[in-house]
Amino acid sequence: MSSLNAMVNPQIVFDLTEVLLASTGKLRYYGIARVAAEAGIALRKLDASIQFAVFSQGHRGLLEVFPEVLEDGSVELNVPAGIGQIRMRSHHYSKSVIRDLILSAVRPLIDRKNRATWDKVAPGMPELDMTGKTLVSCSRPKVITEILCTMAKRGVSCDVIPILHDMIPLHDFHHQRASFPKNFMGDNKFVIEKAKGLLSVSKFTRQEIIDFSQNGVLPRVPEIVAVPLVHQCPVGTETVEQLPPDTPYILTVGSMLGRKNLDVVFEALRVLQRTGSPLPKLVLAGAPRGRTRTYVASAECDSIRDLVLFYENPNQTDLVALYENATAVVMPSRMEGWGLPAGEALWCGTPAICSTAPVLKEVCGDLGLYFDPDAADDLAEYIRLLLTDSVFSTELRKRIAEKKSALRTWDDVAEDIVAAVSRLSR
Q1: Are 319 and 311 in contact (CB under 8 A)?
Q2: Are residues 278 and 190 part of one domain?
Q3: Are 229 and 342 in contact (CB under 8 A)?
Q4: How many CA atoms lie within 13 A of 170 on its CB side?
Q5: Which has the closest alpha carbon to 250: 315, 322, 321, 312?
Q6: Are 208 and 167 in contact (CB under 8 A)?
Q7: Which of 166, 164, 162 is nearest to 360 (CA)?
Q8: 97 Cβ partners below 8 Å, 6+ apart?
Q9: What gap in Å lies between CA 160 and CA 135, rounded to an integer?
């Protein structure tokens, strides 16, 4: 541990703002919040000298939180919960005199309201002096931008090393809000230009950032180090709320139509149905998606609707049970920054059927089963094999179990973050 402590130079402050935001309920199981929480827990266990902070809109600064290691070895992050903050951008990527005038008049009122809301829940939290320290943040770029703008206005200088998750919005995918890709690009440009160095959650995302920079879409990037995420799926501590189905099922986590490509899974079920193959249930686990429910209710899904089961926001205990009892986890996405559900499936000993999106091969290696994201027939064939060929299924599960010791954990991520920050801070 002493050698690790020596590596932390300058002082690391790890940003837990996404955990704070998720506590209001809207982003309860949001993937980035999960990464922030688990990485924070592992960093606290690794090195007690690392500091932790959350950003307060009302205080216009970073407030320190004090995670503690409990007697059983678990970590309580001690991030205040349920503080709803009204968010206003400090940095815009279009000119508007009227907008800026309105915001300048309204912002002091909003700041006072945000501070009053905060102080009702968590009064007296100390503000963290960031002078000479290094902020490491895996928050969304728009959150990091807000933190950096606030510190700049207050004359606070510190190094920042963001952990970037993906560049997916820069690709030609549909977005519900037309302003989202422009703001996403603007925020990433801003963060990259201010960063001492960059971390990415996969080798794939690292290369994406470099490619976008070389093509002139993003600015020139500082040194960037890939810190791949995990396969580890922590055991839940919550009470069981939703039992898994008692018949064979395939599982998707957080899937949607469009880029997440849930469409191909529905079509694979129809293929199985047309060919007279055994039909599993399809469990859709995650935040409720209106568009997906509308599609399932449409005439197009008449023949398979009874196979679809929605498990809304399963807690960690229930999610682990869903992983462990599934015939397979299907990850059909056209693009991901990492792909936690695929890795977690392997950790739980369950086959992962993935699209050929490059990062999913980075996650699963030779343990995954891969299909073209437009090839429903190939996906259907893998499902059929796992349901009907006991030798195929048993051998695959045996290979997954034998390689579990080589899968990545949150402790691995924490150690890699500390080593990368030390390298980038030289």
Answers
A1: no
A2: no
A3: no
A4: 20
A5: 322
A6: yes
A7: 166
A8: none
A9: 5
The enclosing domain of 80 has a CATH number of 3.40.50
Q: Which two tokens stand for residue 223?
A: 């040194």
Residue 239, classed as helix, strand or coil, is coil
Instruction: Yes or no: say if 353 and 329 are a contact pair by the CB < 8 Å rule.
Output: yes
- Residues 268, 339 contacting (CB under 8 angstroms): no
- Residue 383 identity: I
Measured between alpha carbons, how far is 272 from 279 in angstroms, rounded to an integer? 7
DSSP per-residue string spanning 259-312:
GG-HHHHHHHHHHHHHTT----EEEEEES--HHHHHHHHSGGGTTTGGGEEEEE
Residue 126, phi then psi, degrees to nearest 5:
-75, 140
Q: Check whether residue 196 and residue 277 sit in a common domain.
A: no
Mean pLDDT of 243-270: 91
In the structure encoding, which two tokens stand for residue 30, read together? 């949001």
Q: Are residues 386 and 416 in the same domain?
A: no
Name the pTM for this structure.
Answer: 0.91
Q: Residue 426's pLDDT is what?
A: 81
Before 108, cis peptide (omega within 30)?
no
Mean pLDDT of the region 97-118: 86
Distance from the Cα of residue 291 to its chain's centroid: 21
CA proximity to 79, closest of 137, 30, 16, 139: 16
